[in-house]
Amino acid sequence: MTRPVPSVRFDRRRLLVTMAGAWLAGVFTIAGRAQSTAPGKSKIGVIGSGRIGGTIGGLWVKAGHPVMFSSRHPDELKSLVAELGPLASAGTVAQAAAFGDVLFVAVPYGALPQIGRENAAAIKGKVMLDACNAVASRDGAIADEVEHDGIGATSQKYLAGTRLVRAFNTMSYAIFQREAHRADPKLAVPIAGDDADAVAIAAGLVRDAGIDPVVVGKLADARRFQRGGPGYGQSVSAAELKQKLSLTP
Ligand SMILES: NC(=O)c1ccc[n+]([C@@H]2O[C@H](COP(=O)([O-])OP(=O)(O)OC[C@H]3O[C@@H](n4cnc5c(N)ncnc54)[C@H](OP(=O)(O)O)[C@@H]3O)[C@@H](O)[C@H]2O)c1
User: Fold this and answer.
1) Is the minimum distance from the CB of 89 to ligand 1 under 6 angstroms?
2) How many domains does the chain have?
3) Helix (H) or strand (E) holding 141
């Protein structure tokens, strides 16, 4: 009997098919799980999953939101999403931009023009929370534009078509990590945007992260809490922040 060879061939083929299936299932699990959304929860796409994106996105996962974290190298996010559990997934920037009903961008400011350009169709009309700060030594000439035009107008220009809300830019990720969900009075963050519904959605997500939102005004008012502004670097309660920014209590 000379059967062993075909049988080995068959087994090898079956093994290869099984392995390919398992690999594909893995890929689709990484990019595609957490598709269903519980009532009151939003699908959130995080663009830039470093210190601030990873921290705030993690707080949203803990609040029950499905979050897709993205990177130009999504494989490197495996341990982050594994730690956060089944509501967290990882994908490319394009996948996260498509996944999120709400988007959170936390990348070096100089990357915004490219992100806005490459994902123009996917981000159009979506609520976009923007935590990016412009730092001349890192981001180059765009920091001058921010200084001149204000950060709200500049972000909106490069993230065209989004319902932009500035949020989570004023403090270190380590403070957010440590102080989120602390006992009252909670830590507060200033937010600002031109679209009232988008600001309300952003305020709800700030609360879900365990922090008090303080609405400072329109995008033009985001200048008041960009780097160098009076609201920047203030690790204080909502009442104290309103006082510092002369807002009505
Ligand atoms: N760190 C803070 O405490 C803090 C607080 C408030 C605001 N911010 C602001 O938030 C932004 C992010 O700061 P961070 O400290 O979180 O930085 P980070 O830890 O270096 O993370 C930034 C992420 O952006 C991604 N990225 C870089 N260039 C990109 C591009 N061209 N396209 C897509 N993704 C890109 C990188 O992901 P891959 O390389 O994996 O693609 C990286 O993981 C900055 O604007 C910063 O000023 C930071």
Assistant:
1) no
2) 1
3) none
Task: Supply the range of the domain harboring residue 76.
Answer: 41-244
Q: Which residues of 56-68 are buried (b: 16+ CB within 10 A; e: fewer)?
A: bbbbbbbbebbbb
Q: Kindly state whether residue 231 falls inside one of the protein's structural domains.
A: yes
Tell me the HSE value of 179 on the side-chain side, using a 13 A CA sphere: 19
What's this model's pTM, rounded to 2 decimal places?
0.88
Does residue 226 line the site of ligand 1, with CB under 6 A? no
CA distances from 236 to 106, 185, 187, 209 (A): 22, 9, 6, 16
Residue 233: other Cβ atoms inside 10 A: 14
Helix, strand or coil for residue 102?
Answer: strand
Cis peptide before 185 (omega within 30 of 0): yes
Residue 10 binned pLDDT confidence (cut-offs 50, 70, 90): very low
Measured in Å, residue 159 CA sits from the centre of ligand 1 at 16
CA 3 to ligand 1 centroid distance, Å: 59
**Do residues 189 and 154 make contact, with C-beta atoms less than 8 angstroms apart?**
no
Q: Is residue 30 part of a domain?
A: no
Among the atoms of ligand 1, which is closest to the Cα of residue 173? 3
Indicate whether 227 belongs to any domain.
Answer: yes
**Span 85-103, average pLDDT:** 98
Segment 180-220, tens digit of pLDDT: 999 999 999 999 999 999 999 999 999 999 999 999 999 99
Task: Give the number of C-alpha atoms closer than 13 A to the C-alpha of residue 151, restricted to the C-beta side.
Answer: 28
CA distance 191 to 174: 19
